[in-house]
């Protein structure tokens, strides 16, 4: 699937040209399109899709809440604030596939906005987990603290945007649209390390998550240290989200919809639902990105919108269809 | 022998829920804990199973203090069947296997799988082992919860209101299963029950709790009209029929 997606793009290269470019035997421009734009982008879809989807699944299990998502701790809102601060106040730059003038004329490091987004995401995660430690990471407290913290970041972003210039505001809003075109090999490497460490840890803890489905009291009685389990799980899943959002912008719905689709079809045994969620997330984001590239008439549509448009009807069909009886 | 010595606990230190609980329960016996709502029964069970930490006191099993043990070690001694049962979308087999989580990390050993198979057979759950637990009836779900607890191979099984949401047939089914577990396998069963007639049928030893302490304890002889009145504030008449005791409740003005 990922291989097929390499052949789709706005440059209208034929399949044979793509294959030649893959072998490094096409024109310099075509080689660059395949190796420097499409491959990093496809890799980003695979890695971020898997990371966001698994992150959502782990949040839902640990917070015992079907509406929990990778951004439940307010990570995305904090990232948006960090990015807005960078773009509006410090005139920071970011990579973008839409060639927005404002983002390239600044002459600043194109990764400064990602860095600011990441710093504020991590600050938000540490602040909430630090606060929730007092209440033993009680799921309801974590969710409510996440909502409260998210609204603080949103309010701060609104104030920033109120004072922004038209160009700055436009650039800041564009940043929030998820865009896999911002991916480079370097960002893919950073994302893959974070997502890889997270998923391996979640797989190692998968049997404990199965016990946690019966509630904290049962999990503790079968020997699970629920407090530590929840802390590690929330920290890692939020870090995955922070890294993905900082590099790619907001990609909504993958982290809510994919885990639910997988749970409806495969059940909730975490060893398999983690693996399946990773695959489903990669597939959904890859398909969405390919569609966004082929529908945008030369420029990619926001991938977050396509994930929702693509995933939601499928999800509704599963809820109300045969699989929903389970 | 399960021994609880001077157990004190309070969510708020100024108003302790447990004010010095003392009790002893022999191996292989069914102990029934009774008392009004808010008397501290669930809190006591949560401390025994490690969910809450007491402010003072000891819980000894065969002379060893449960409070000094690691979580895994304790999980091999005490298992818990809660009042509210929720399993998530797991199969019966996966749910029972979750009871072995303190014995392995990712891949269960042959011994773990053997324990699960034996428990499923003993609880007569083999035919539904591949079904989603959420599709089962209340009685079957309760049996799955007991099976998961038994998969821990515990020495003490704690039940919090095991028959609370069940019809009469399932109540009897669960009570008889629990009695069988205690008397055949030598596991100490400690349970709370509100219905005093059901408690008399179920238990070997009885503990009445009031104001954070065990007010009185003993065998079936402990059921007396004045004790029921003291604990629950209601009037009761105890009648005997074919050697079995029954309790009838009256409104105060009819007494």
Topology:
The complex is a heterodimer of chains A (326) and B (255).
Chain A lengths: L1 H4 L9 H8 L5 H35 L12 H15 L11 H4 L7 H22 L5 H24 L3 H11 L8 H20 L1 H7 L3 H6 L4 H23 L5 H13 L3 H26 L7 H18 L6
Helix pairs in contact in A: 2-3, 3-9, 3-12, 3-13, 3-14, 4-6, 4-7, 4-8, 4-12, 6-7, 6-12, 9-12, 9-14, 13-14, 13-15, 14-15
Chain B lengths: L1 E8 L8 E8 L4 E5 L6 H8 L7 E6 L2 E2 L5 H5 L2 E4 L10 H7 L11 H13 L15 H14 L4 E5 L7 H18 L2 E5 L3 H7 L2 E6 L2 E6 L6 H8 L2 E7 L2 E7 L5
Could you please describe the fold and organization of this structure?
The complex is a heterodimer of chains A (326) and B (255). By secondary structure, chain A is mainly α. In chain A, 72% of the residues lie in helices and 0% in strands. Chain A contains 15 helices and no strands. Chain A has helices spanning 2-5, 15-22, 28-62, 75-89, 101-104, 112-133, 139-162, 166-176, 185-204, 206-212, 216-221, 226-248, 254-266, 270-295, 303-320. In chain A, α3 (28-62) packs across α13 (254-266), α4 (75-89) runs antiparallel to α6 and α6 packs antiparallel against α12. Chain A is globular. By secondary structure, chain B is of the alpha/beta class. Chain B has a single domain, classed as P-loop containing nucleotide triphosphate hydrolases (Rossmann fold, 3-Layer(aba) Sandwich), CATH 3.40.50.300. Chain B is 31% helix and 27% strand. The longest helix of chain B is centred in the C-terminal third of the chain and has 18 residues, at 168-185. Chains A and B meet through α10 and α11 of A and α2, β6, α3 and α5 of B.
